[in-house]
Amino acid sequence: MLKTFLSYLIFPGFLFSACAGLIACWIDRKVTARIQWRVGPPWHQNFTDIIKLLGKETIVPSDSSKWTFLLAPCLGVLGLILATTIIGRAALVPSESFLGDLIVVLYLLIIPAVAMIIAGASSGNPLASVGVSREMKLVLAYELPFLLSVTAVIIKCNGAIQFAGILNHQLNFASNIASFSGILAFVAALICMQAKLGLAPFDISEADQELMGGVLIEYSGLPLALFKLTKAMLLYTSPLLLIVLFFGKDLSLLFILLKFVGILVVFILIKNTNPRLRIDQALRFFWGPVTLLALLANGLALLGY
Amino acid sequence: MDFKLKALTKSIWVFHVSAGSCNNCDIEILDCLTPRFDLERFGIQLIGSVRHADAILITGAMNRKSVPRMKKIYEQAPKPCVVVAVGQCALSRHMFRFSYNVKEPLDNILPVDLYIPGCPPRPEAIIDGIVKLVNKIRENK
Hints:
The complex is a heterodimer of chains A (305) and B (141). Chain A is mainly α and 305 residues long. Helix content of chain A is 73%, strand content 0%. Chain A has one domain (2-303). Chain A is built from 13 helices and no strands. Chain A is globular and about 55 Å long. Chain B has helices at 2-10, 24-31, 66-76, 88-92, 123-140; strands at 13-18, 45-46, 55-59, 82-86, 114-116. In chain B, strands 2-1-3-4-5 form a five-stranded parallel β-sheet. Chain A binds chain B through residues 29, 33, 36-42, 45, 48-49, 51-52, 54-59, 208-209, 211-213, 216-221, 224, and chain B through 3-4, 7-8, 10-11, 34-35, 38, 40-43, 47-49, 51-52, 54, 76, 78-80.
């Protein structure tokens, strides 16, 4: 009982994933700065930001619904903690995973986006509601190809819907990425994760220049810190999920770290070299080429490639 | 308390308001974020919403239209929040001091914590001003 509790709160759960996520955010900022020929912030910058936000005043707008406004960030963090813990424990001790945990994680990973939607809608700001409508469309857009690329992995692993089964299959045969269907599914999943993280070509719902922070426009202090923490933890969770699904062959500490940083840098490079899409372009992109890619991966996986 | 203050001065998120400036000061502010000066080294970022701001950075002479909006923006910012006046216009109305449209200088309207003179101030002057402000805040508390 205590062990379960600790695993949710400390090691693969909240504390560890928050620290790892903030470090991942720093890697993001640092690599971005180096690409732009700047120096970039020190490694503790994101920790400083969070501590600072905790010390600031929390303002609740008068025309917002107060409890929803304050509880939405907690919802996002809690959902993500569960997802991170399940993935982390599956990677550490595969024998402890339960049947269907992959599907549970897929559901839990939508919760941060749902929390953003609730948050923006409850804040009573017109710019936030524009952000909410964009976020909603974006979720609809990327979930379809993302689930399809996950089904390609499941087909590849002989129908395993458990992390243990997927890892076992990759351990016995080869990483899923080392096949045609695996490569196609990985590319599709990577692009979908980019949208899930809200990074540059798909940062449509936050859009600093046009929506001034979008859904987060009315947030300050502690709730804003929670949202920043959710984003940071997602930046740790989603590469980890991709590693478990596609690069599961060798999960020793060094290799997992190398793969993690590698996937992260790919995210950052895509972010820094692409301008923001309009929401209709994003929708067309996800339901067109990316879905086709994922479908192709499914077909190839069925044929055994 | 000291810990919190240190975090506050190490991560300043700036909300930039142009209260009727000629855009020259705004360009110099953007220069501070370019590779040559790179204020992100010190955790200083430009952000979009005033709700996230730790500093409100004001350029330009305060004309009649922008005064009530300016007050509103200041009230919307979460405290503690400092106000920085950049450029001669924001400091003293400069060449617009006899204008029908610019009634009073900025520091009659908002409590200004830092004045950065110049028309426009150089990026070095802006960075120097920020360092002085940070030192002042750290000594006072």
